[in-house]
Amino acid sequence: MGFVFLADSRGYAGTCAIGGDRGEHVIRRLIIADDHPICVSALTSAVNAVDEGILVSTTDTLSGVRDLIAQGPFDALLLDLALKDSQGLANLVAVQAAAPKLPVLVVSGNAAADLPARAAMLGARGFLNKTAPLAEMKSAIAVILEGGTWFPLREEPADSLADKLSPAQMRVMAELAQGKSNKLIAYSLGLTEPTIKSHLSAIYRAIGVHNRSQALLALRQGLDEAAA
């Protein structure tokens, strides 16, 4: 098993594994979560260009993503940051809490320079602009499906929050991003309030803040800009 480095003229790069014994052909499954039919069509075409045998499920809501994940397993998720029932990076937080091992390629029409880095910090495996040509979409999807990453060269991530936090802490962070109180988070997750406070302390350290207000600001920062 080896790794190949891919780069293109737009300044995007990725790494993916190559070689090794794949054995029998395994049917791969992928989710496209986007509320724009044209984008869904373009992404589906890119997936088919990678492998026509990939089974694609589509949804335009975060609740739909959760329902599909429950029916899994899936090999990757192409996630728009502006869905009908949820906006911005909160979508990524929710997915990471529900399925921390599911590779997520964030797809956005927003050109904010720091958005890929924010997505990487929250556990995304890649970032793709909706204006990308079909060839770039194909390359990004192929890299993600092979277990690699796809980010602008300057944004190749180090450790994400998904690497630093436990699955339970990721679920708490998803609830926190919705603005819930400790009591409501404890009720939603079936935990005690002291346990929630302990998890929140770990979350604050991971995202570099000191209190709840700062954490909410950090988690919500850029959500309006990301909703594109």
Q: In a few lines, what is going on in this structure?
A:
The chain is 45% helix and 20% strand. It contains 11 helices and 10 strands. The longest helix has 15 residues, at 193-207.
Helix content: 40-55%
User: What is the C-level CATH assignment of the largest domain?
Assistant: Alpha Beta
The name of the CATH architecture of the largest domain is 3-Layer(aba) Sandwich
Q: In the CATH scheme, what's the topology name of the largest domain? A: Rossmann fold
Q: CATH superfamily of the largest domain, please?
A: Response regulator
Summing up helix and strand content along with how strands pair, one would put the structural category as alpha/beta
Q: Strand percentage, roughly?
A: 15-25%
- Order of strands side by side in the largest beta sheet? 4-3-5-8-9
- The global form is globular
